[in-house]
Structures are given as C-alpha cells and as structure tokens.
C-alpha cells in the first residue's frame, strides 16, 4: 500500500493539503496513453480555515483540483492546515479531505486551509517531528504550493527523509516495518506568487489576479487624473521582480515604469520629465508612472514613489499624487485565468506524484505557452537565485534573460513605445464583432508603427468604412487612454471586402497605403483571404497584410489563444453560484456565445466549476442529457446542493437552451428547481482584462515589426510590391499549418484536452489523456530567439 500527500505553502508561509493513495497497481494498469479512472466514495469531514491575506488568489483552486483528482484516482486525501507549522504540530492540523469539503472554493481568495510561518521547520528537530506526523499516517507524497522558499524547504525535507526515518527508528518512535513502507518521499511543487518571480514558468498562480487588482485601481485613478490634469505615481509590489509593474504599465499605457531588473540609465530624470512634458504638449491631460517597490537606479539607490513625485513637482510643476497599492494586490477573488491555471496544475501535480519513483527528482509543475510541463524543482530554484545574483552584480541584461522569454517580450514591447519620425503608410482597421483588447491592439500598433518610422492611418467601420473612404491619419496622442476601453473605438462591422475590391483598391491608391493591419475575428480572416486572392487583379493590394486575432469565440486557425471573454463569463457564473448559495437545490442553465466553437463555454465552465458543458465539438443526445440530470440528482443528495450547466449557443440545433431548461425542470421536479440565463452580448462588453490588454499590445507590436521587415524586403524600384503567400499572414501564439473545417472551427483545438479535466472535477466517470504527461523536462537557460509566429493565409 502506498500513501500520498499534498501540501500548499507560500515562501516562508505554508498551507498544506495531503492525500493517501491506496493500492496504486490496481488503479493504474498498463492500458496505453489513457488512464481509466473511477472515483471512490469518501466520508465527509470539515476542513475549513481562515484564508491568509499573504497568499495569492487561486491557491484554493489548486487545492480543489489536487483533492478531487486524488480522490478520483482512488486516493485518500488529507488537508494539512497552517502549512509547515501544521505538519510539525500534527494532531487535528492533518485531516482527511472529501469531495464535498472543497466545494465552493474556486471563487475564494487566499487559502481555506490556512498558512503560517514556521521557524521549527527550519531546524532538523522540526522536520523530524513533521516526518513522524507523516509516517503515522503513511503519507509519503507531498504537493507543495508556494514560493521558492517553501519549495526549497520541501526539497531539503525530501533529501533528509531517509536519515529522518533512521533517527525516528533509533528513538523508538517508529518500527522497522513503518520505516520500510515509508522509505520514499515524493514531492511536486506548484508556484503560488503574485510577483511571477519563479523561473521556469510563464505565469505563477496569483499573478493574473494581482494584475486585475492593479488595473482596476489604475482605471479608477485615470478618471480623476484626467479630470484634474494630474500625474499619478503608483507603487506596486515587486521587491525583487518587476513583472507586475512592467505588465501593468503595458496594460494601462503608463508613461514610465521602474523595475528592479532594468534600472534607468543615468540622466533618467531629464528623459522622464521630457517625455511627460511631450505627452502633455500632445494633448494628454494625465500621466501615469508605475514604480515597483524594489526599483533602484544604476548606482543602487532606491527609486521610490516619493522620490519620483518630488522630481516631477520640482522640474515640471505638475499636480502629482502618490498611490501605494499594498496588500490589496494579494486579496480578492481569483481571476478566471488563475482558476484555470491552478486547476490544470493541480491535476498535473497528482499525475506527477503517481508516476514518481525513487530516482525521480522533486519537480515543479509549470506553464509554458498553454501547456502544463514538469521541470526539476532545484533547477528552477537555482535559476531564480541566479537572477538576483545577476542583479546584485549589475548584469541587468543577464537578469532579464534569466527571467524568461515572456518577461523579455514584455520589456521589448514596452521599449518600442517611444516616439520617432514617419515614412511608410500603414492602415489599421477592426473587422467582425467587438472583442476585449481591440483598442489596446490599435494603440500599440499606432505607437509602435510611429516608432518604426511609419505614418499610421485609421479605418473606421471595418471593410465597409474602407471602401467608403473613412480613412484618416491617426497620431500618437489620438490613442491615449485607449488601452482600458472596451469595444472598438475605431468601429467594426462584419462586412466582407469581396464585393467592393475595386473601391478598396482605389482608396489604397488615393491614400498610398503600403501595408494593412487587420484586427478582428473570423470575418477579418476571410476578408484578408479575399484581399490576398485579388492581388492578381489589383496591384494596389500587393502590399504586406497581417491579421491579429481578436474574438470571443477563439476560433481562428493558426493561433492557440486569442482575446476572449472568459473573465466576463466566469464573473457572471460566479454570481449565479453565489445567488444559489442561499437557495438550496437550484440548477442554473447558462447559454454562452462562441458560435460553433465551444472554447468560451468549456474554459468558462472550468473556471466556474460547472457540472456539465454542452458544445458543438462534442455531440450529445437525449441519453447524455438524461445521464447529466441523474448526475445532478445524485449531487443534490450531498451537501453540495446547487448545479451549473453551460450550453454553447450553437451546440445543437434541436436541443436548444429552452429545451435543456425545460428537460432539467421536468426531470428534476421535486429534487431541484432550475433557472435560465442567456449571457448574450454582455460577454463582449466591459473593460478588457489585464491579459487581453497585455496580449493585444504585444501581438500588435509584433505585427508592426513584421510589417516593417516585410516592407523593407518588398520595397524595390521606388515602390512596395508584395504578392507572395508569406506576405499575407496571421499572427498567433504558435507557428502552424492553417486548416479549417465546417462552421469556422479549426481542425486542431488544444483546449479540447481540458474537457476530461472539467468532467473529472465535476465527479463524472471518464478517462484522462496523459499522453502529454510524464515527461520531465529541463529548464532552458539560453532561450533561442522566438521565431516569427506567423501563418500564411
């Protein structure tokens, strides 16, 4: 018999959950890359604790995923309350967890199993007591959620495990059989830190939620700053890592940012004041400066928010205020991104523990692109320490490189947003339905285009405005404040250009347009196809053309991830669940947008803890509907007396939302009642999330850089001429062949792999594809230059 435990901590704090696996061999038979799993019945227990204000949002989602995945594969799961302190003290701090005990945790910040600093665990005596408490319960596997300090402590605990057992046996606290049966300790880590300061992962649990808190404050401040023509200096967390400051600066269009990894050059005071003054001279009524709490200059002197404020007041005389966000960045409801990230990491951590052997090093589950990967824990910790060493030695370029490709890309995009003279003419337009982040993409395109040396033109109302001549030059100051605006300020329509090619070619000749940047959804994709296909008939269309995907449906081929409304859906679903908390035995039937693509429904359902999600890509019939009703009926017999069912708007032409609602109402009569809600166009509205702002900014900047390179290559004989296939491209998150099937659905959709995970966490009997799991990778120390992430249209 093998037993398993998981633990969650944060740096010096610790919040632990644990679980015991019974009879591994009977659960995992060698049946190929898919693991058939059946959940075990468990007894209920109470496992509540006050959440710690020092822990990042999203940790509860990780705990929930670990517990439910552990139970699902036949594990007996334990909570270890108060982190390492609870593991040292033992007793009631280590309690069995059940399926119901992690219900309604997704939307709660902090950690419900508590956290505490633990000096005892730093000593061998404390770790000896912790080992004794684990051995008494036959726990030999730990999942630790925390920062590099907690993870380093867990690895030391693992290295000492054999000697700790020997010492316990010599003291007579355990017998020979207990030492033999608990001879190995396996550890898997998940990183929980709002600073995103752990190397080896693109994003840590809690970072996106912290960005939400920062952007909410910045958006509120910008209204008063604009009204009073003020300058605001915002101090955000980041004592040793400037990720929050850097990304929030991109997401809100800040005028200046200070981060520890890249101190400003000598003379920065004059440069900053000149930039602020130029911004005001171009018509801006406000300035935003963001300072990471650990920022310093090239000589090691701290760059504080008060120092920056005094400088602005002294040199420019601007009315300046300071806002220090403090611990508000750590609190609040976790974002949809963090809930999904933590859920995926939790499931992957369980699989990693089950597959661990005596020779397997302690690993950490990381996010690279959109894939969960396993990396050796100490390699990541060592690289994280090397970043600080490089900063101490003033090797700042090295520190930025060690932070990883994501950090480098953010920094390079920020550096692009400066002012320079113009040359080529580039037109920007939005096409299709509005999507969050469109305005951020337009702003970045305009300013980076000016930086790259182009004259930028804005086209109103998509291709319809194009052929009608609604084209005008757009300048640097015209896009000020666009980053946080929802919808499309340029205007957007679904009109395709096919019937108006002559007029569009004429407008391109009149305005001497040398390149096109189209931001939009599937209509933008089809429109660019029509334009590129007409090049042989209209020489004016022989210019570089590039598309930036922006759609709530996430259905553009050639790109794994686009700007979506997952956050809006998750917020709405969370409110529905909260409204049901006071009314027992209630099921919500929710319809989401997405056309024939089920991405929005699936990922929104995973973020909100849905029981069932109906999508077009996964056909269903009346038997499936009946099985889902029976599943909810059984659920109502437990302490979790509420349900959530999502339906993609075009999932089935016969089983409409009304039909599903009426079926559930009738079949659930006397057991539960139902409520129906169609989210509709509210999913397209509202302020864009930090992810959408940052993603739109970075992708648009890359699109303009691609245009610049292609214009240079295509400029011959005093004119631009580009008619090859690779001069009409779609910019995405990965390079791929473009393939589309019916109903605007790409043939390859990575997110479909999340469907079994969602079903497992809802306690359905299903199988989970682990063909991509089990591979322990290594940290890439010198990352190759990112290749052009474009696909020919």
Layout of SSEs?
Blueprint: E1 7-10, E2 13-21, H1 24-27, E3 34-36, H2 59-72, E4 75-80, H3 83-89, E5 94-97, E6 116-117, H4 124-136, E7 141-146, H5 148-170, H6 176-181, E8 186-191, H7 207-228, E9 231-236, H8 243-252, E10 256-258, H9 268-281, E11 287-292, H10 305-316, E12 320-324, H11 336-355, E13 363-368, E14 371-376, H12 377-392, H13 396-403, H14 405-416, E15 424-431, H15 438-451, E16 454-459, H16 462-467, E17 471-473, E18 492-493, H17 501-510, E19 515-520, H18 522-533, E20 545-549, H19 566-581, E21 586-592, H20 599-608, E22 612-614, H21 622-635, E23 642-648, H22 657-667, E24 673-678, H23 690-714, E25 715-716, E26 719-720, E27 728-731, E28 740-741, E29 745-746, H24 754-761, E30 767-769, E31 790-792
Parallel strand pairs: 1-7, 7-8, 8-13, 9-11, 9-12, 10-11, 15-16, 15-18, 15-19, 19-20, 20-27, 21-23, 21-24, 22-23
Antiparallel strand pairs: 1-2, 2-4, 2-6, 3-30, 4-5, 13-14, 16-17, 25-26, 27-31, 28-29
Helix pairs in contact: 2-11, 3-4, 4-5, 5-12, 7-8, 8-14, 8-23, 11-20, 12-13, 13-14, 14-23, 15-23, 19-20, 20-24
């Amino acid at each position: 018999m093998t037993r398993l435990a998981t633990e969650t901590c944060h740096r010096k704090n610790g919040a632990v959950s644990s679980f015991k696996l019974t009879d591994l061999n009977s659960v995992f038979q060698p049946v190929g890359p898919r693991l058939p799993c059946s959940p075990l019945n468990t007894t209920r227990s109470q496992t509540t604790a006050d959440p710690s204000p020092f822990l990042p949002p999203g940790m509860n989602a990780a705990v929930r995923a670990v517990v439910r995945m552990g139970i699902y594969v036949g594990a007996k799961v334990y909570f270890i309350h108060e982190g390492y302190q609870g593991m040292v003290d033992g007793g009631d701090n280590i309690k069995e967890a059940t399926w119901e005990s992690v219900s309604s945790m997704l939307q709660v910040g902090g950690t419900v199993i508590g956290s505490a600093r633990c000096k005892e665990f730093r000593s061998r005596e404390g770790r000896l007591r912790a080992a004794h408490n684990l051995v008494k319960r036959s726990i030999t596997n730990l999942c630790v959620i925390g920062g590099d300090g907690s993870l380093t402590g867990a690895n030391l605990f693992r290295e000492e495990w054999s000697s700790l057992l020997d010492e316990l046996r010599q003291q007579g606290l355990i017998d020979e059989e207990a030492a033999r049966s608990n001879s190995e300790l396996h550890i898997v880590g998940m990183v929980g830190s709002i600073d995103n300061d752990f190397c080896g992962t693109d994003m840590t649990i809690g970072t996106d939620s912290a960005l939400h808190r920062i952007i909410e404050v910045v958006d509120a401040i910008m209204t008063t700053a604009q009204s009073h023509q003020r300058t605001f200096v915002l101090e955000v967390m980041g004592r040793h890592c400037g990720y929050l400051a850097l990304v929030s600066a991109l997401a809100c269009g800040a005028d200046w940012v200070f981060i520890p990894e890249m101190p400003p050059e000598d003379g920065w005071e004059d440069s900053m004041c000149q930039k602020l003054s130029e911004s005001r001279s171009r018509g801006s009524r406000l300035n935003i400066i963001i300072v990471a709490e650990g920022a310093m200059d090239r000589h090691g002197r701290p760059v504080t928010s008060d120092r920056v404020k005094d400088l602005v007041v002294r040199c420019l005389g601007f009315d300046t205020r300071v806002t220090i966000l403090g611990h508000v960045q750590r609190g609040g409801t976790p974002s949809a991104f963090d809930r999904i990230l933590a859920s995926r990491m939790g499931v992957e951590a369980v699989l990693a523990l089950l597959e661990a052997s005596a020779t397997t090093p302690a690993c950490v589950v990381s996010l690279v692109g959109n894939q969960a990967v396993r990396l050796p824990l100490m390699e990541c910790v060592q690289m994280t320490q090397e970043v600080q060493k490089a900063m101490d030695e003033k090797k700042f370029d090295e520190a930025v490189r060690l932070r990883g490709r994501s950090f480098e890309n953010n920094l390079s995009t920020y550096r692009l947003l400066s002012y320079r003279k113009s040359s080529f003419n580039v037109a920007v337009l939005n096409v299709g339905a509005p999507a969050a982040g469109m305005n951020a993409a337009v702003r970045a395109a305009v300013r980076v285009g000016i930086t790259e040396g182009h004259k930028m033109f804005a086209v109103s109302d998509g291709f319809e405005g194009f052929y009608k001549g609604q084209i005008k030059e757009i300048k640097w100051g015209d896009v000020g404040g666009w980053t946080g605006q929802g919808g499309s300020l340029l205007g957007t329509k679904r009109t395709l250009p096919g019937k108006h090619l002559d007029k569009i070619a004429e407008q391109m000749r009149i305005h001497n347009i040398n390149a096109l940047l189209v931001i939009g959804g599937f209509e933008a994709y089809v429109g660019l196809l029509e334009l590129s296909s007409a090049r042989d008939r209209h020489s004016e269309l022989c210019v570089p053309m590039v598309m930036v995907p922006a759609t709530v449906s996430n259905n553009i081929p050639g790109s794994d991830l686009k700007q979506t409304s997952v956050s809006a859906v998750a917020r709405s679903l969370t409110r529905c669940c909260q409204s049901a908390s006071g009314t027992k035995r209630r099921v919500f039937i929710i319809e989401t947008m997405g056309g024939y693509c089920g991405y929005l429904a699936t990922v929104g359902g995973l973020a909100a803890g849905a029981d069932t999600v109906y999508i077009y890509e996964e056909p269903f019939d009346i038997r499936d509907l009946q099985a889902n009703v029976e599943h909810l009926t059984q659920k109502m017999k437990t302490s979790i007396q509420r349900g959530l069912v999502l339906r993609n708007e075009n999932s089935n032409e016969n089983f409409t939302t009304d039909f599903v609602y009426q079926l559930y109402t009738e079949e659930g009569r006397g057991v539960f009642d139902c409520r129906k809600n169609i989210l509709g166009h509210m999913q397209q509205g509202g302020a864009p999330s930090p992810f959408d702002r940052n993603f739109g900014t970075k992708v648009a900047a890359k699109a303009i850089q691609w245009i610049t390179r292609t214009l240079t290559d295509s400029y011959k004989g005093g004119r631009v001429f580009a008619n090859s296939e690779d001069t009409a491209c779609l910019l995405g998150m990965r390079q791929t062949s473009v393939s589309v099937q019916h109903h605007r659905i790409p043939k390859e959709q990575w997110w479909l792999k999340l469907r079994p995970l969602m079903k497992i966490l809802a306690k359905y009997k299903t199988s989970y594809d682990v063909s991509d799991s089990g591979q322990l990778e290594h940290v890439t120390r010198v990352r190759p230059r990112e290749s052009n992430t474009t696909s020919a249209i």
